[in-house]
From TrEMBL:
This is Pyrimidine-nucleoside phosphorylase. Its EC number is 2.4.2.2. It is an enzyme of class 2 (transferase). The gene is deoA. Gene3D superfamilies: Nucleoside phosphorylase/phosphoribosyltransferase catalytic domain, Pyrimidine nucleoside phosphorylase-like, C-terminal domain, Transferase, Pyrimidine Nucleoside Phosphorylase, Chain C.
């Protein structure tokens, strides 16, 4: 088999066989296929696409390129959730405890932030003592006892994906639906997940900016799951403004804890209950979505979800006083109010700009080597649809720099205004099962 034949075949719009895809993934992972030939095939895929069957085969080949995590020692039907990345997205800290509170095991492998989207592990490490580096044995034990564990990906998981993603990044082939879907799903499946709810973001702060693109990605990932015998539900949710009011690390933990204690932040509450309900039904805890939603909503209000959150944090070494007394979480030196220069209504908040402003403050990373400052971030004081007057505070920057001019400019520029109230912002656009 020759790589040039595969390139030519895909260039001509034909489907690759299972053997051809396996040959490519194995050869490139092992270093037998050079970058220039792999790049040529990726570009051919970018222009000609892949069938659902091809994409599923590519996904499985990337899973098989390295280690996989065996979660068979965990009792019950394990569920997981994955977000394609957003700004202010702290739903894992609400959904995980919610689902655990009804006895469903949640075994979640998470990553760190890069660019304008925050990382789950970075946020959890804002809690003093929290340990995301669990051994496999400890991870399984925690899920069996507390029904929830969140840890960093360890071992040699999907090495083919790591190599291919690096190549896609420098060859302008990142935004290909089959390549994105296989990349996301290979990592999830290598982590041992059989039941997954995907939170596919759409809008200005998402990787997929249009609803059409987001729906295509959701359908592709659902098709991969079907082809590989996994249960997948995809929720397409809005990222045209940040989720909730807090962006950063400690302040996102604070907002999640407040919601688990009963505070109503509508967009976060709606999305968290939606995803958690699908997870509970997939695991067999409830026979239908409406019953699951009702029971989970009760556990938000009666404190059971917060108790599950505390147990999970304590089990992984975190100081629970930090989430019981939220003022003890890391805090920045300066709190800088950004004022409106107009009267009217907030018509839009560019989520990506808010995320980049938080990154400039130190809440995120421009490169993988950057250090995270857990105390800095942004608090939104207005959301889309809110009325504003001239010189009213629209957001607060929490900074260790007294004059973070670039971040202030970026945050202020994220807000758009209109004379008339805009249409109500949607939280959930579509659910694909």
């Amino acid at each position: 088999m020759r790589m040039v034949d595969l390139i030519q075949k895909k260039r001509n719009g034909k489907a690759l066989t299972s053997e051809e895809i396996q040959f490519f993934v194995d050869g490139y992972t092992n270093g037998d296929i050079p970058d220039y030939q792999a790049s040529a095939l990726l570009m051919a895929i970018y222009f000609k696409g892949m069938t659902s069957e091809e994409t599923a085969i590519l996904t499985q080949a990337m899973v098989d390129s390295g280690e996989t995590i065996d979660l068979s020692q965990i009792k019950g039907n394990i569920v997981d959730k994955h977000s394609t990345g957003g700004v202010g997205d702290k739903t894992t800290f609400i959904i995980g405890p919610l689902v655990a509170s009804v006895g469903v095991p949640v075994a979640k492998m998470s990553g760190r932030g890069l660019g304008h989207t925050g990382g789950t592990l970075d946020k959890l490490e804002a809690i003093e003592g929290f340990n995301a580096s669990l051994s496999k044995e400890q991870f399984i034990q925690n899920v069996n006892i507390y029904k929830l564990a969140v840890a960093g990906q360890t071992g040699n998981l999907a090495p083919a994906d790591k190599k291919l993603y690096s190549l896609r990044d420098v060859t302008a082939t990142v935004d290909s639906i089959p390549l994105i879907a296989s990349s996301i799903m290979s990592k999830k499946l290598a982590c041992g997940a059989d039941n997954i709810v995907l939170d596919v973001k759409t809008g200005s702060g998402a990787f997929m900016k249009s609803l059409e693109e987001s729906e295509a990605l959701a359908n592709e990932m659902a098709a991969i799951g079907k082809n590989l015998g996994k249960k997948i539900v995809a929720v397409i949710s809005d990222m045209n403004q940040p989720l909730g009011y807090e962006v950063g690390n400690a302040n996102e933990i604070k907002e999640a804890a407040e919601i688990l204690k009963g505070k109503r932040v509508e967009d976060l509450r709606i999305l968290s209950l939606e995803i958690a309900s699908h997870m509970a039904v997939m695991a067999g805890a409830y026979s239908n979505y409406r019953r699951a939603y009702h029971e989970l909503e009760k556990n938000l209000e009666n404190g059971r979800a917060f108790l599950a959150f505390k147990s999970f944090i304590e089990a992984q070494g975190g100081n629970v006083e930090r989430i019981e007394n939220l003022h003890t979480l890391p805090n920045a030196k300066y709190h800088i109010e950004v004022k409106s220069d107009k009267n009217g209504y907030v018509s839009a908040i560019d989520a990506e700009s808010i995320g980049l402003a938080a990154m400039l403050l130190g809440a995120g990373r421009a490169t993988k080597e950057d250090e995270i400052n857990h105390g800095v971030g942004i608090t939104l004081k207005k959301k889309t649809g809110d009325k504003v007057t001239m010189d009213e505070t629209i957001c607060i920057l929490h900074s260790d720099d007294e004059t973070p001019e670039e971040a202030i400019k970026k945050a202020a520029g994220a807000f758009c205004f209109s004379n008339q109230p805009p249409s109500p912002a949607k939280v959930i656009h579509k659910v694909i099962t």
